Amino acid sequence: MGTLLRSVLQGFGWRVGEEAAREALASAERALTPPPEPPPLDPKALASAEKARAKEEARAAKAKAAAKARTDKEIEAELKALKKRLKQP
Fold first, then answer.
1. Tens digits of per-residue pLDDT, 62-88?
2. What are phi and psi of 60, to 5 degrees?
3. Which residues of 23-53 are buried (b: 16+ CB within 10 A; e: fewer)?
4. What is the pTM of this model?
5. How far apart are CA 59 and CA 19, in angstroms?
């Protein structure tokens, strides 16, 4: 009975080991193969992507200019308050 049980367990271990080896080989092959090149985009999609990128750049530039104007305005207000405080005796 012990020999039969040992044979079954060894057979099961062999099957598990074989599966693990196959999975390891498959993952190694996937790692070695280069990724497929993306299909070329049609001109319409390229134009749309360029337009979206330009819009985003314009939006970012506008936000940056608004932030600079806001900080400049705050600085001028603080400067004006300091000058006013300095003039008072």
1. 999 999 999 999 999 999 999 988 887
2. -65, -40
3. eeeeeeeeeeeeeeeeeeeeeeeeeeeeeee
4. 0.46
5. 54
